[in-house]
Amino acid sequence: MRNANIKSGRVVVKVPSSTANLGPGFDSLGMALSLFAWVSMAPAEKTRITLVGDNLQGVAEDKTNLVYEVAQAVFNKAGIELPELDIGIRSDIPLTRGLGSSASAIVGALVAANTLIGQALTDDELFQMATALEKHPDNVGASLFGGIVVAAWDGLRAEYIRIEPPALLDVLVAIPEFELSTKKARNVLPEQISMKDAVFNVTHSSLLTAALATGRLDLLGHAMRDRLHQPYRASLIPGMEKILHEATENGALGAVLSGAGPTLLLLADSENSDKRIIEAFVKKVMDNEGITITTRWLEPCLHGPIVRLVDENDADYKLEPGQLLRSAEAEVGA
Ligand SMILES: Nc1ncnc2c1ncn2[C@@H]1O[C@H](COP(=O)(O)OP(=O)(O)OP(=O)(O)O)[C@@H](O)[C@H]1O
Ligand SMILES: N[C@@H](CCO)C(=O)O
């Protein structure tokens, strides 16, 4: 058993959501977004899990909860026993919509648990664990490091490089009311693709990465095209094909399926794009398909998790986990 430096207070972690793939960078490119989840964690006599807000319906409130399980994986790896936890989770990230809700929960749990045990694991160990749990590094990399992450995982080890997102990039997400699990959206993908389509994706993903790294917003429309996953997923998301094909004619820099979907993501130039036209176009297409969507303008999030250790003996923090998370926005930063 490792000599643990277990913190006595409560850890509160704010984690960004993420979009994966950015079109051709399937399982490789991710970008953190300004929509957040919070995980709070403290050692306890008996495990309690408190869910806050409307976005966590159906999430387990016992020891099968993803956040609890991931925390235990951290303690196991560090050789520390901490079986009972008081956990609070608040999320503004809708579940199973392609905005990395599971990745943010995994990253929040990893960082909170690791903070509780005095940073026993390195950032690299957390990234390797997160990738193995999520099975691809794009969402977890973005939530863990912020900005844009270019990552590759060979099933054993993941490597990444973080890129600072171009300035002046606005992000419209159109979130359908229906859910689409990553599992279902991966099941429609073919086992094999043609050399022609493979070459298309390698070249476009490389161009996209270079365009993002050098701020060439003018190339995004060309570079964000994909033949590896979006064409196969289109049947699951009415309106997607039209939005992807016509986005640039309607003022966007480019449009893609966000992660495994069903959310659609459109990029805009915050100084030169007419955001009203882009949003009206998306709403009209989805309305014609009879799909109800929520639209939100977001920005790339430049930071990974923000961590705060609070002393529960402090009168200000004598709060239930739920209340603490409600005030977490103010405490841990907007
Ligand atoms: N905050 C959370 N706490 C516990 N479990 C969560 C939390 N957020 C997500 N999950 C789990 O993750 C599942 C959603 O994962 P899934 O990969 O299907 O979608 P996603 O992560 O929202 O989308 P994508 O991976 O395409 O971006 C939920 O059904 C739930 O089981
Ligand atoms: N790269 C993954 C992301 C899922 O969130 C996919 O598209 O299946």
From TrEMBL:
<feature type="domain" description="GHMP kinase C-terminal">
    <location>
        <begin position="210"/>
        <end position="285"/>
    </location>
</feature>
<keyword id="KW-0791">Threonine biosynthesis</keyword>
<dbReference type="InterPro" id="IPR020568">
    <property type="entry name" value="Ribosomal_Su5_D2-typ_SF"/>
</dbReference>
<keyword id="KW-0418">Kinase</keyword>
<comment type="similarity">
    <text>Belongs to the GHMP kinase family. Homoserine kinase subfamily.</text>
</comment>
<dbReference type="Pfam" id="PF08544">
    <property type="entry name" value="GHMP_kinases_C"/>
</dbReference>
<dbReference type="InterPro" id="IPR014721">
    <property type="entry name" value="Ribsml_uS5_D2-typ_fold_subgr"/>
</dbReference>
<comment type="function">
    <text>Catalyzes the ATP-dependent phosphorylation of L-homoserine to L-homoserine phosphate.</text>
</comment>
<keyword id="KW-0067">ATP-binding</keyword>
<keyword id="KW-0547">Nucleotide-binding</keyword>
<keyword id="KW-0808">Transferase</keyword>
<protein>
    <recommendedName>
        <fullName>Homoserine kinase</fullName>
        <ecNumber>2.7.1.39</ecNumber>
    </recommendedName>
</protein>
<dbReference type="GO" id="GO:0009088">
    <property type="term" value="P:threonine biosynthetic process"/>
</dbReference>
<dbReference type="GO" id="GO:0005524">
    <property type="term" value="F:ATP binding"/>
</dbReference>
<dbReference type="InterPro" id="IPR006203">
    <property type="entry name" value="GHMP_knse_ATP-bd_CS"/>
</dbReference>
<comment type="pathway">
    <text>Amino-acid biosynthesis; L-threonine biosynthesis; L-threonine from L-aspartate: step 4/5.</text>
</comment>
<keyword id="KW-0028">Amino-acid biosynthesis</keyword>
<feature type="binding site">
    <location>
        <begin position="94"/>
        <end position="104"/>
    </location>
    <ligand>
        <name>ATP</name>
    </ligand>
</feature>
<dbReference type="InterPro" id="IPR000870">
    <property type="entry name" value="Homoserine_kinase"/>
</dbReference>
<dbReference type="InterPro" id="IPR013750">
    <property type="entry name" value="GHMP_kinase_C_dom"/>
</dbReference>
<dbReference type="InterPro" id="IPR036554">
    <property type="entry name" value="GHMP_kinase_C_sf"/>
</dbReference>
<dbReference type="GO" id="GO:0005737">
    <property type="term" value="C:cytoplasm"/>
</dbReference>
<keyword id="KW-0963">Cytoplasm</keyword>
<dbReference type="Pfam" id="PF00288">
    <property type="entry name" value="GHMP_kinases_N"/>
</dbReference>
<dbReference type="InterPro" id="IPR006204">
    <property type="entry name" value="GHMP_kinase_N_dom"/>
</dbReference>
<dbReference type="GO" id="GO:0004413">
    <property type="term" value="F:homoserine kinase activity"/>
</dbReference>
<feature type="domain" description="GHMP kinase N-terminal">
    <location>
        <begin position="65"/>
        <end position="147"/>
    </location>
</feature>
